[in-house]
Write a structure and sequence with these properties.
Layout (H helix, E strand, L loop, with lengths): L8 E15 L2 E19 L5 E7 L8 E8 L13 E17 H25 L7 H21 L9 E18 L2 E17 L3 E15 L8 E5 L5 E8 L4 H9 L5 E7 L2 E3 L3 H15 L1 H17 L1
Parallel strand pairs: 5-6
Antiparallel strand pairs: 1-2, 2-3, 2-4, 3-5, 4-5, 6-7, 7-8, 8-9, 8-10, 9-12, 10-11
Helix pairs in contact: 1-5, 4-5
Length: about 300
């Protein structure tokens, strides 16, 4: 970004471990990550310390992320008894993470990433004789490919025993905290706790469930009249259950004949929340994100951030 070399980002990965096994009728993999840390060494906090953009809050050496994947072929003798009739089993668990979203730091990071992408794109233009796809084109293509793969896995249930499960996916997030800061001022803190999601694909239907236990928003600005902007007053913020019925299954055809057949069913439960509408708070949040939305302000804020760093 400039000719002077400066230490900018420090990214640390703690206790990464991957185990895998291949068997006669399938394979399994287990991966854990103890923690991650991303530190901005150019911008500093109010006490002069390096700005910790991403951090983990695990205790007792617990793993931040754990991922388990197991594939068992239906022809396995223990498919129904030992493995519960599940062909693809996936479990993802994330414990505690926190991110610091400082306006100046994020503007500088955005400019840094944009310069890298621009350099890579220019290099591809010079070295490739064929047409070069843009980053958005590649991203769109990847998203379509991933979506198609997921749909194919969940839809290919023919040949499975009636009580078997094609895919059983479980995802859990213990808590995630986002802090919004502007220079030396703290603006807001958003906490998400207890997210649970699951996907179960069976020959007759696919069940998607999602639940969030807690969500809170606090006004952290100096002299805030009312700090609790959003509070939950129930056990859960929402509980969603979506069922997609397989049209080719015999159970679905039987329901069609009785006149009660459904293609989809949705059940949504919303908890009671307490919200405070404060014009000053929402104006500060709008002002905070405006440089990331408005292109002219983005360029001006980027230049200001660069000039500020140069003077340090």
């Amino acid at each position: 970004m400039d000719k002077e070399e400066k230490a900018y980002l420090m990214f640390r990965i703690d206790r990464l471990r991957i185990d895998s096994a291949i068997t006669v009728h399938g394979y399994a993999a287990y991966a854990t990550l103890g923690g991650v840390q991303l530190v901005d060494k150019i911008h500093v906090g109010h006490a002069g310390e390096y700005m910790e953009v991403l951090s983990t809050n695990t205790i007792n050496n617990n793993n931040l992320v754990s991922i388990m994947y197991r594939h068992v072929e239906p022809v396995c003798p223990d498919f129904a008894t030992y493995y519960g009739g599940v062909e693809h089993a996936i479990k993802v668990k994330v414990l505690s993470m926190a991110t610091l979203f400082d306006q100046a730091s994020m503007m500088y990071l955005n400019a840094f990433l944009q310069s890298i992408l621009s350099s890579v794109h220019n290099l591809e233009m010079r070295t490739s004789s064929s047409s070069v796809m843009t980053t958005s084109d590649v991203s769109t293509k990847d998203k379509v490919s991933i979506t198609e793969r997921i749909v194919n896995i969940t839809d290919q249930v023919d040949g499975l025993p009636g009580n078997s499960t094609k895919v059983h996916l479980i995802a859990e997030l213990q808590d995630f905290t986002i802090k919004l800061t502007d220079s030396d001022n703290s603006l807001a803190e958003v906490k998400v706790k207890g997210f649970e999601g699951s996907v179960i694909a069976k020959p007759a239907k696919t069940i998607i469930r999602s639940r969030l236990k807690d969500l809170s928003i606090r006004d952290c600005s100096a002299g805030a009249i009312y700090q609790n902007i959003l509070l939950l007053q129930d056990d859960s913020l929402f509980d969603l259950k979506l069922v997609k019925y397989n049209k080719s299954s015999s159970a679905h055809l039987d329901n069609r004949e009785t006149g009660h057949g459904l293609d989809y069913s949705v059940r949504l439960w919303l908890g009671q929340i307490q919200a405070a509408v404060l014009g000053k708070f929402y104006w500060e949040i709008t002002r905070f994100f405006e440089p990331f939305i408005n292109q002219e302000m983005t360029e001006a804020a980027r230049q200001t951030a660069m000039d500020t760093v140069t003077k340090q």
